[in-house]
Specification:
Blueprint (H helix, E strand, L loop, with lengths): L23 H28 L2 H23 L1 H5 L7 H24 L2 H9 L1 H13 L6 H17 L4 H6 L3 H15 L1
Helix pairs in contact: 1-4, 5-7
């Protein structure tokens, strides 16, 4: 058990015991490291999406992502692949793959139009939607400050996206230039 969070579903398990991890510092550092790496990746993704073609970026992401994921799977999961036990999870894997596919496409469109900061602010609102679902379906009890934090996050997103970033305004082509680039690309293929 790593991490600093209390057991979130203790009411489901009907357990009054609060479970804390033994290596909380390790969990916190892993969480912070993952957040920093995700921020670096999305900034570089924004740069790539705004400077190159989205289709080219997604194609290269899929190609190299497949190679890296395949190598990781062969190295780390070799024994599990040889057994038949993983076949029961094929629906879950398919759903995850479709979700990742949609997320990659939508995040590229979002990054091209809004930017990395707006994406990160929008992703912060995901916890609120989880809380609302838990409140409605599982009768969670939550503090009113959660709603205040959601409101402040949405105000931050709105303030940020009112005006495009200087990078976006400088490097994004106008609609006529984008149409000209697309039509010239198809003429070159013929």
């Amino acid at each position: 058990e790593v991490g600093h969070q209390k057991f979130p579903c203790r009411h489901v398990a009907k357990s009054p015991v609060i479970v804390l991890g033994k290596n909380q510092l390790v969990g916190d550092m892993l969480c912070l490291g993952g957040a920093v790496l995700f921020a670096i990746v999305t900034v570089l993704q924004e740069l790539a999406v705004k400077k190159t073609d989205v289709v080219e970026f997604l194609g290269l992401l899929g190609l190299f992502g497949s190679i890296v994921s395949g190598l990781q799977m062969v190295i780390l999961e070799k024994q599990e692949l040889l057994t038949d036990s993983w076949k029961q999870y094929i629906n879950i894997l398919t759903t995850f793959s479709i979700s990742q596919f949609v997320f990659c496409i939508l995040s590229c469109i979002f990054l091209q139009n809004m930017g990395t900061t707006a994406l990160h602010l929008s992703l912060l609102s995901g916890n609120f939607y989880t809380l609302v679902t838990g409140t409605v379906l599982l009768n969670y009890k939550c503090h009113a400050l959660y709603f205040l934090s959601y409101l402040l996050t949405m105000i931050g997103v709105y303030i940020y996206v009112i005006k495009p970033t200087p990078f976006a305004a400088q490097y994004l082509p106008s609609d006529s230039q984008r149409t000209r680039n697309i039509s010239s690309r198809y003429k070159n293929r013929r």
